[in-house]
Amino acid sequence: MKTRIVIGVSLIVVVLAMANLFVSHAQQAVGVSATPPAGNGVPPLSNPLKVALLKWYAANETGITFPVGMGPTGVAFDGANIWTANYNDGTVTKLRASDGTVLGTFKGFSAPGGVTFDGANIWVSNSITNNVSKVRASDGTILGTFPVPGVVPWWMTFDGANIWVPSENANGNGWVTKLRASDGKNLGNFAVGNSPIASAFDGASVWVTNLGGGGPGTVTKLRASDGTVLGTFTVGSAPFGIAFDGAYMWVVNQNDSTISKLQASDGTVVGTFPVQTGPYGVAFDGEYIWVSGGLDIVELRPNDGSILHRYYSQMYTHNTTGIAFDGASIWVAAYNGNFVDKF
Question: Does 42 reside within a domain?
């Protein structure tokens, strides 16, 4: 009897052990410990909005354009609408991003060059009167106008609390001014390079492109908390637009017809790649780098800077300037066409 009991218990132990082994192997086989694939088993999609819009194509090439003011140069997205700074008629235009409907064209600016969104308001750089205006995004009301120390303020950036504005003196020596977004108070003017023109924020530091007076241009990196210069880095000739892709800064060089890729951590130039003639602006769409300027738009693969596409659409006779991404589409301003194109 004891022998039967021992044998029975032994069989139970063996069965349980084998069952546990099978379950363990089954779990490994189906990858229980790994993150399950999305939907139908394909890798997780990087842009759900594009999926919702059935935008499986790279860009819309049917020539979707919307009229704005005269001479648009700067473009910004506020989460629902596209804004353009219209240099030649002193206005800014607000368009609904979903369908391009013009929601308002607002006056009271002086050769505006750039527009930047702070989460509630649009900031407009006035390149003739050398100040910036704070505009309520909901209705276009000007809430205040604030001076900067230099001339020709152009493309600004927002760091989550402050607006950074590049400007220069008559000799080209430049600053970037830190304005508190809540009330426009000047928190400091920080020296950068020659003829600063555009800026971008990488989450900790502010970067400013210094257009220069010929020869190699530079980019200055400043600590956003106190304006300390962390480095000045040489790029191509006449650097202009700048954008951050989460790890690298991308700077277009107008005179070289190139774009430079810099490591945001230390400013190391890891690559310089050819683009179109006279590049002007640059934007990141979460996957690719887009460059405006000249008569075409260039789409680049970030890992190696190779050109994936060139787009002309309705801009084949118009110089392109400002560029912005709205979460699904790229918007580009046509300076001498007085419209924006939606790709």
Answer: no
Q: pLDDT digit string (tens) for 16-62? A: 343 443 333 333 333 333 444 433 343 445 677 666 655 666 666 66
Please tell me what DSSP assigns to residue 181. T
Residue 248's nearest CA partner among 282, 214, 217 is 282
Considering the entire predicted model, what is its pTM? 0.84
**Sign of the C-alpha dihedral, residues 19, 23, 29, 30?**
positive
- DSSP state, 183? T
User: Residue 213: is it exposed, middle or buried by C-beta count within 10 angstroms (0-12/13-18/19+)?
Assistant: exposed
Decide: 310 and 28 in contact? Cβ < 8 Å.
Answer: no
The tokens describing 102, both together, are 């013009």
Report whether 192 contacts 181 (CB < 8 A): no
CATH for 298 = 2.130.10.10
Alpha helical stretches, state H, the chain: 2-30, 48-52
Q: How many domains does the chain have?
A: 2
Cβ-count burial 321-330 (b if 16+ within 10 Å, e if not): bbbbbbebbb
